[in-house]
Specification:
40% of the residues lie in helices and 14% in strands. It starts with a strand and ends with a helix. The mean pLDDT is 97. 46% of the residues are buried. The chain has eight helices and ten strands. Helix 2 crosses helix 3 (79-99), helix 3 (79-99) runs parallel beside helix 4 (126-146) and helix 5 (163-173) packs parallel to helix 6. The chain has helices spanning 15-24, 48-60, 79-99, 126-146, 163-173, 196-207, 237-246, 263-276; strands spanning 3-6, 29-32, 64-69, 103-105, 149-152, 178-183, 211-216, 218-219, 227-228, 253-255. By secondary structure, the chain is α/β, with parallel strands linked by helices. Strand 1, helix 1 (15-24) and strand 2 (29-32) form a beta-alpha-beta unit.
Length: 277
């Protein structure tokens, strides 16, 4: 298992500078964000030349694009916003081959119209679920056409907020193009840290065979309101890495939710856990 990192961790003026910085820390895998190439995270336009340039810059440095971020609010109350997100997703899917990846990361969204990471009480409603599955049906058609995988993760403030809901979604959609991002911090039971080991065991039992990407960040307080660099909080990384290995996961462990000043210490921590797993 190799360590990777979100490309956005490195704030630089140009794509070559971002990638040089990433490589200087020893990383050869990244979850890419289009903002690192001077575009919006979800671009309205993406040329073949730009996609090929990104792929070339990565290959020059021996960096693999493990996935590219395509997150948009899949249940936004305004259908026009959802359509705009699907249009951008189509552009990304069409560019994946030239950029050197086959995985696009998504979120399952929230009914909050202003912030796709903000909780809304309507997220648990049948209407929100129907909107999500309708958006995913369209997204999966794009994925099938371009032969890419879509990866979603349980997020505390999103419609899919638990491993059980993620399993339900996979079972309902019945698509080999839909996969799971595992992030132990997202599954932390707020205020009940003693329950986390059992929660993770259940999550891997339900989702282990469908994991295509694994994230590494940490929970910094018992209430589960603050996140930071892996190794600084409440996540038991011995258990988490062991569960990843036991389910047969062979992909990268992607660091995120941290500042660049924390990269070296956190990567040393994770590498030590991987080495002794």
């Amino acid at each position: 298992m190799n360590l990777g990192i979100f490309s956005k961790t490195f704030q630089r003026r140009s794509l070559p500078e971002v990638l040089d910085s990433l490589r200087s820390y020893g990383f050869t895998e990244t979850q890419f964000n289009m903002s690192c190439a001077g575009l919006s995270s979800l671009p309205d336009d993406l040329s073949i030349d730009t996609a090929r340039m990104i792929g070339h810059e990565l290959r020059q440095r021996g960096i693999t694009m493990s996935a590219v971020s395509g997150t948009f609010n899949m249940v936004h109350p305004d259908p026009a916003v959802r359509e705009k997100g699907l249009h951008a997703l189509a552009l990304l899917a069409g560019a994946c081959r030239d950029m050197g990846t086959s995985v696009i990361t998504l979120c399952t969204g929230t009914l909050d119209p202003g912030n796709m990471w903000a909780y809304h009480p309507g997220n648990a409603s049948p209407e929100a679920w129907r909107t999500l599955t309708a958006s995913l049906e369209q997204a999966l058609l794009l994925a099938e056409q371009q032969r890419v995988q879509l990866a979603i993760e349980p997020e505390p403030a999103n419609v899919v907020a638990s491993a059980r809901q993620a399993r339900r979604l996979l079972d309902e959609m019945q698509s080999s193009r839909l996969k799971i991002i595992m992030d132990a911090a997202n599954l932390y039971p707020a205020g009940r840290p003693q329950e986390l080991p059992a929660v993770l065991e259940e999550a891997f039992h339900l989702l282990g065979k469908d994991i295509i990407l694994a994230h590494a960040k940490d929970v910094l307080d018992e209430a589960g309101t603050r996140f930071g660099a892996a190794g600084e909080g409440l996540i038991n990384y011995e258990q988490y890495i062991d569960l990843l290995l036991r389910c047969g996961y062979q992909g990268p462990l992607i660091m995120h939710g941290l500042e660049e000043r924390d990269v070296l210490g956190s990567s040393n921590f994770l590498n030590s856990k991987i080495a002794t797993a």
